[in-house]
Every structure is written in C-alpha cells, then in structure tokens.
Design goal:
The protein is α+β, with helices and mostly antiparallel strands. The chain is built from 14 helices and 16 strands. The relative contact order is 0.11.
Length: 442
Amino acid sequence: MDTKELIKRVREDKIKFISYQFTDINGVVKSLDGPVDRLEESIDNGIWFDGSSIEGFARIQESDMHLQVDPETYAILPWSPDELKRARVLCDVLRPNGEAFEGDPRGRLKYNLKKLKDERGWTLNIGPEPEFFLFLRNGTESIHPVPYDIGSYFDFSANDQAVIVRTELMSVLKQMGLNVEVGHHEDALGQHEIDFRFDDALKTADNVLTFKSAIKAIAAKHGLIASFMPKPIFGTNGSGMHCHQSISKNGDNLFYDGDDPNHLSTIAYGYMAGQLAHARALSAVVAPSVNSYKRLVPHYEAPVKLAYSAKNRSASIRIPHVASSKGRRIETRFPDPIANPYLCFSALMMAGLDGIQNKIHPGDPADKNLYDLPPEEDALIPTVCASLEEALENLDKDREFLTRGGVFSNDFIDAYIKLKMQEVTRLRMSTHPVELELYYSV
C-alpha cells in the first residue's frame, strides 16, 4: 500500500481519526492522534514532536523529531465507536534533517534487516509466542493481582468467561491483519496464549505491538487488566515469549539439512551457538525487567540452562518437531513479552549472525531433565543471569556483537544500560513485602 492507496482506504473505511504510533526504548506504544483530514499533510510533512519527552530518546538540546508514516501498517482499531472511528499507522522516527534516528527501535530493526538482505540476500523469519495474564480490575490489582479464571493448560468450558474474552481477542487480531493460528489457556491461573503465524522479523515485530495493544484494549472493555509482566504471581509459571526463528533465501529455508540428525544446517547450528554464547548479554534486551529474573528460575518450565535440546523445555533453545523442511527452525525460550519486540529481534539476530560468522558450534544437545542433573554434570552447564543487574553488566562487557556494522551504537547501549539501571536501583531502595515478613518483628 502506498500513500495514495492509504488515503483512499481511509476514506472508504470512514475513518475519523488517525493514531500515529511508535515505541519508546521500553517498547511502550506512544501515539499522536489527529483528525483524518490532516492525514495527507502529515504524510507529506511528517508529524513533529518533542523527542526529549520520550523514554530513552533525544536529549533536550536535540529534541525535535518527526514521524514518517508506514502505509503498510494501516489497521482499523475495531474497539473504537463508529462516530469516533479510529485507525492506526506505525511510524519511523526521523531527525529534523530527514535521517533515521538511531534511537528508534523500529528503525534499528529495519536497518538491520536491510543490511542482512543487501549483504547476504537473507530474510529473518520469526514466530513469537507471547503469553499474558488476565486479571480482575478490583482496585488492589497492583498489589494483589487476582486471576480472571481458574483454568490450566488447554482447559475448556463452554461458559468460561475467559474463553469468551480470548475468542473476541482472536477475532479482533484477525481484523487487524494478524494470521491467528490458535489460542489456549496456559498453565497458571488467568494465563493465556494466542499464537499467530511467523513472518519476516519487521512484520512480526509490528504484529507483536498490535497484539499487545489489542489485548489491553479488549481486556479493558471487559473490566479486566491484561498484563505482560513475566512473573506477576509467586509460585506459579511466568509468561515467556518463545521466539521461533529461521533464515530463508529466495524462499528456501537455510536452517534445514536433511542429512543432519536434527535436520539442522551448519548455518542453523552457528546461529544457535551465537545466541548461547551471548545469552547473558542478550538477556538484558530480551528479558529486560527486574521481574524477568523471577521467571528465570528452576522449574515452572523456565529455561534457565544455556543449552539446546530437541526434547527438553528447560533448555534455553529448543528444536521443535516439524513435519516439513520449510518449518525447520529453532525456538529461543528465554525472551519474555515485556521486551521491546524491535530490540529483541535485532539482538537475537545479531547474536545468531555472530555465531555463523565465527563458525561456532553449540556442541551436543542436552536431552536430560536439566533441573535434576547430578551436581558434577550441573556445574558444567552455564545458566542465564540471575538478575537484571547481572545481565546489564554482561551487556556492558559483551557488546561488540551488537555494534558490528553500526546496527547499535555504543551511545545507544550506554543509554539503555543507564535507563535500566534506574529500575534496578529503584527496587534496591524499596522495602519488599518479604523483607517485612522476615524482619519486621525481629
């Protein structure tokens, strides 16, 4: 869709307002809304805003930014009323001189993927599985979140309100252009998953943004809160965003080799090895919250061991069983849904490419239960980081794979670490309920 087609489509759909959307460094959707009769002018001249007001963006002395509309991302917001019918377009962030702003997460991913295509002719395909919780809105949900239902894995009840909400969510996502495959209840109370078909990494990252926005809107319509927090409830499974990945060239899956026992190619093994080698730095981007590391603990199907397996879901990378060569892929399991999808996919890709370039091999698969290894075997397998602070320290030391080719700048990584350390410091200075339980009456 070009700009002329976009304007024609907007008129046919009787849209009243346009939401111009982008993300800050944390992946939070930001929006500038305008009446539809200003759309053409906005496309021609850009939508100007103060970048210094956005988390992780420009400094005050260089704050002027403008948005460039991507017509391909047009989608009606189905929950908006007809009299105020709204649509959204995703945008790239530009500097005043028209150059791409290096702090724009979507722009970084676009640059990264174009570089991959221009230099190798490769396309990165990703299929994520973002899990989420539905909680009752009861006034105390930020302290004591109450799950909306009492189901478990794949549970079904014809009268279950959660099924009704989830079905409406799938309908809305399809209306917004996502190729929804299946939705189901996850293991924890109130926990759900809706899977949509893989696509190239930019389209998929856009879809994750659409997915999260739509789920929050429909949940609110039902008086609920949708949370992508990785571990909102102690003592049960957390929410991950397992990322299925493969690389193709001219329609051929470069991860497939029929002669290998796992049907994986040398390229696939190198890509997987690169992610394992840089996993502790990678975690700072793909599991980017203090809360993420409350999920990455033994048991609860959490991927804590830096190993790969065709069978073991406690490994950080799994090789899913598939019936066709086109579907051969790897599944990286330690990312979670609070991650900025553009930064997450860029970082996964750069780690994987480093493994390919340096011809790293991940060794043998770990097909035992990694939670119950003998101590001498357990000590030989490295683990993911135990905290965001530890992950940020590793990112600071192991950043060269991200800066290669100008994909990420050192200034961007420094700003990211500084921003995330504020979260670490805030928690460190806050009194925790468990501390009160342990020490208050001592």
